Amino acid sequence: MEVAPMSWHPVLPWPIVVVLGLLLVGFTLWRLLVDSHHRVRWGLRLAIAVAMVVALMGPAVNGAIARQAASDVSVFFVVDTTTSAMARDHNGEKTRLEGYREDMAKIQEEMPGARFAIITFDYTARVTMPLTTDTNALKTAANNLRAENSLYSGGSSVTVAQERLKLTLEGAKKRQPERSRVVFYLGDGEQTASEEPAPFDLGDLVDGGAVLGYGTEAGGRMASTSADGTTGEDIKDSQGNPGVSKIDEKRLEEIADQLGVPYTHRAGGDIAPALEDADPGTTVEGEGAAIETYTSLIWVFALLMSLLLLIDLFVTTREIGRLRRVEAGGTP
User: Fold this and answer.
1) For residues 76 and 205, what is the distance between their CA atoms, to the nearest angstrom?
2) Taking 60 as the threshold, does the pLDDT of residue 130 lie above it?
3) Distance between CA atoms of 49 and 268, rounded to whole angstroms?
4) Interior CA angle at 70 toward 67 and 72, to 5°?
5) I need a labelling partner for 29 at 20 to 30 A (CA). Which of 8, 218, 261, 262 fits?
6) CA distances (Å), 65 to each of 17, 70, 293, in order?
7) Of residues 146 and 292, which shows the higher confidence score?
8) d(CA 185, CA 272)
9) VWFA domain: which residues (predicted)?
10) What secondary structure does DSSP assign to 165-228, as a single string?
11) What is the DSSP letter of 22?
């Protein structure tokens, strides 16, 4: 029968564990040798000290070698956070912003091991999350996406993120030229700035991706938003009529052509069809960083320490009782 190999994963830096071990084991061993009247008690404490030192060294049984999924892709989400993101015409009466969050999560699931970044835009563009492989950071950032404060909402351009995206892609290419750069543009294509939007001009910086469109031709009413992300009553125009935002698919198709990626209208459902022509790069199981799994045995020594402490407490209590009987004039 093959015995699984052991490994050590110290709870504290091992030099500290060694020093503590020498002090604890050395002291209890010395007391065991010099205190002949309490050999049992000091023998127990020596065993407790040894168990404590072993536990602090983090004993474990090695397991299998696991590998993370590896990907050669850097993904850049360009997300529309103008007031129209609060229009309630996505997959029923969900806001478009909810649709963005859902699809970002689906894309992440379809592309394990990729690095992700988020650029949001309204009247200006900003990097909300730099490139990372931390999927929890991506989920948190996506869940915290907020539409701009509608009180200060003005005209916005659908390509206002052009310069910010270009600088970010150039930086990624310079640092890791071997990685594909995939761009997913999520928005409704509604141009509210008075001038025509400047086209995306990114050259060979984009290797794949897709433009994902949200909203309907009929449009949806928009809730007002505040600086802290809370929503209020529906927005009204200058005549007091409900403010309605409509998708502009022609504009979105133009953006897709400029980026050199396909356009897909999104209304919920499976994300896979939207990724078929996106050329998102490859994900290879078993080619990522190796991770050696192990089963910690600290609990075994912690349990042993607890048992020895209980026995020590019992022995000490019994000796105290005997001494009290002697002092009271009784039999020991």
Assistant:
1) 12
2) yes
3) 60
4) 165
5) 8
6) 28, 15, 6
7) 146
8) 16
9) 74-197
10) HHHHHHHHHHH-TTSEEEEEEEE-----SSSPPPPP--GGG--EEEEEE-S-SS-EEBEEE-TT
11) H
Q: How far is CA 123 from CA 71, 151, 197, 223, 278, in A?
A: 34, 13, 12, 18, 28
C-alpha 172/C-alpha 166 separation (Å) is: 10
Whole-model pTM above 0.90?
A: no
Tokens of 300: 């075994």
- Residues linked to residue 4 through DSSP beta bridges, in sequence order: none
Superfamily of domain 70-284: von Willebrand factor, type A domain (3.40.50.410)
Bridging pattern class, strands 223-225 and 231-234: antiparallel
Is the distance from CB of 70 to CB of 77 less than 8 angstroms?
no
Longest alpha-carbon distance in the chain: 105
Return the H-helix or E-strand segment holding 325: helix 298-327
Please tell me the distance from the alpha carbon of residue 91 to that of residue 38, in angstroms, as a whole number: 77
Cα 271 to Cα 59, 155, 187, distances in angstroms: 45, 31, 16
Sign of CA dihedral 300, 302, 306, 312: positive
What is the residue whose two structure tokens read 């048992």? 307
* Closest residue by Cα to residue 161 from 177, 133, 183: 183
Q: For residue range 205-260, what is the model confidence (pLDDT) as tens digits? A: 999 899 999 999 999 998 887 766 677 777 777 677 888 889 999 999 999 999 99
3-state secondary structure of 80: strand
234 with 243: CB under 8 angstroms?
A: yes
The amino acid at 99: G
